[in-house]
Amino acid sequence: MIKSSLLLRNDVIKNLRNSISTVGKQNPTQYCMELVRKYDYENYLCTLLLPKNLRAAAFAIRAFNVEIAVIQDQTSEITISGMRYNFWNDTLKKIYNNKPPEAPVPLELTRVLQNHKLSKHYFQRLLDARWKKWQSVSFNDISVIEQYSEDTVSPINYLLLQIKGIQNIHIDHMASHLGKAQGIVTTIRSVPYHARRRTIILPKDLLIDHGVSSESVFRGESSKELSDVIFALASRANQHLKKARSLKKNFKENLSDIFLPAVNVERYLAKLQRANFDIYSRTFNKRENMIPFHLLLAKVLSKW
Predict the structure, then answer these.
(1) Which of 14, 39, 145, 245 is the most buried (most CB within 10 A)?
(2) Where is coiled-coil annotated (predicted)?
C-alpha cells in the first residue's frame, strides 16, 4: 500500500512538472499571459488595459490563480488533487525562498517579487480556500459564498493594489466588497457547468426555502423558484458592487484600471435582470463581443 502511494505520488509530481512547460519551451511572461487568456478571458482583457509596467506582474498573479483553480477540473480523485495542492503549496514556499522550480508561473512570480513586494499571505489564502472548497463543495447559505469569494477573489484585488504601490486599509475595504460581488457572480455563472457534473453550488437554504430540487437543477430546468434563488444571489452581489462604488468616492487615487473587472460584473447582472434571472436563458449562450470596447470605455471615462 505504501509503495503504491509513493508510486502514485511520484507519477503525479512527474505529470505536474511535465504539464507546466519549462522555460526552454516558452517564455514565462508569455506563458502566463496565454494561460490567463485561455482560462480567464474577461480578466485577461482587463489585465491588458493595465499600465505596461504593471501588466506582467498582474498576469503572473492571475496565472497562479488559474493554476490552482483548474486542479478541481483535472481530477475527481481527492488523493491526486491533494498531491497537486501540496505541490503548489511547496512551490509557493520555494518562490518566496527565491528557489522556484523550473516552470513558467513560479519563475515569473519569482521575477515579479524582485520588483514588487507582494504578501505571501494572499497567495496562501487563494490556495487554502481552493483546497477547502474541494473537500466540501456545497454552500449552506450566501454568507459562505461571500466568505469563499473573499478568500478566492479579493486576495487578487489586494495583490493588484500592491503592485500599484497602494497600501490603504480603506481601499482594501472597497476591494473586498468588489471581490465578493465578483465571487457571487462567478458562482451564478458556473451553476450550469457544475449542474452538468451533478454538483450543486447554490446555497442549500435558498433551494429549500424556494422548493427547488437538485434534480431540476441537474436537468437544467428553468422555473420561477430557481429564478428567485438566483435573484437573491444577484441582489447580494449588487449590494456589494454598490458599496464598492460608494467607497470609491472617498479616494483620490485613480483605481479604474485595477477595478475594471467590476464592469464585467455590472454588465452580467444587468444581463441577468433582462433574462428575468433565468440562468438557462439562451441569452447566455451568446458570446459578448463588445466586452473589450466597454472595458476600454470604462477605463477612459474612469468609470471605476
Answers:
(1) 145
(2) none
